[in-house]
Amino acid sequence: MEGVGSFGAGRAGGAFDPVAFIKQPQTVLRILSWVFSIVVFGSIVNEGYVNSHSNTLHCVFNQNDDACNYGITIGVAAFFASMFFFVLDIYFPQISSVKDRKRAVLAELGFSGFWTFLWFVGFCFLANQWQRTSPDELPLNQGADAARAAIAFSFFSIITWAGLTVKALLRYRLGTDMSLFTTENIEGIPDAEPYPGYPTGSGIERADTYQSPPFTESLGSGPKGFQIPTY
Fold first, then answer.
1. Which residues form the MARVEL domain (predicted)?
2. Separation CA 146–CA 65 (nearest Å)
3. Which of 55, 102, 160, 213 has a CB 3.0–4.6 Å from the CB of 33, allowing a cystine?
4. Which residues contact 127 (CB under 8 A, 6 or more apart)?
């Protein structure tokens, strides 16, 4: 549950609720990012290379192999990263260390922000190369649907990864809710009783409360003055 404990997760050791986990916006964005990455690199791998007037396969994006390689690389990397962070989201509430939670959130924030930028570059790169592609390079319009799908889902990936970046930033800014660690919120521990104060007296001192000194011998009973010793 978001907003409950340290960095948006509850106390470590709590029960895992799969229904609530799937309904989280972060989980939905994670699954969409995973699906979009499959569409991008799958479209390029399957139909992104055509042979025009030769037996050599060329990239459908203006015969620029760098465009296809770029789309495949960021798509495959996003595919594995989505699975990794999905598993991390499941395990995250079980992390008891606040420092480890902070590291996980910072790692997600940095990666999601960086991959949002890479998807933006990929979308602009693929769209630009597709605009420069001549119809003569695509006999019978080969690979056109795959190229359009890769461009479209690259754009959609920008949105999902940007959403994941925002969610990670919110979790990082949420930080640690220290109110969970007060004694009032710990179950099974009663509130501490106040320390009893010192007993208050009547404020009137009595003379009989004082005792006589232990040495009661009178000073006047001893020899008076200085006596000369006898030899």
1. 21-173
2. 15
3. 160
4. 151
Is 64 within 8 Å of 19 (Cβ atoms)?
A: no
Q: Could you report the per-residue pLDDT of 60-107, keeping only the tens digit for each?
A: 998 899 999 999 999 999 999 999 999 999 888 888 788 888 899 999
pTM for the model stands at 0.69
DSSP bridge pairs for 59: 49
**Calpha distance 16→21 (Å, rounded):** 8
Q: Which tokens is 63 given?
A: 């015969």
Whose tokens are 């229904």? That residue is: 19
Name every residue whose Cβ is closer than 8 Å to that of residue 185 and which is 6 or more positions away in sequence: 179
Neighbours of 75 (CB within 10 A): 25
Distance from C-alpha of 28 to C-alpha of 43, rounded to nearest angstrom: 23
Q: Which three-class secondary structure string do you get for 121-172?
A: HHHHHHHHHHHCCCHHHCHHHCCHHHHHHHHHHHHHHHHHHHHHHHHHHHHH
Half-sphere exposure of 48 (CA within 13 A, CB side): 27
* Pairwise CA distance, residues 196 & 54, whole Å: 96
Grade residue 179 by pLDDT with cuts at 50, 70 and 90: very low
What one-letter code names the amino acid at 10? G
Token digits of residue 28: 């939905």
- In angstroms, how far apart are the furthest CA atoms of the chain? 148
List the beta bridge partners of residue 196: none
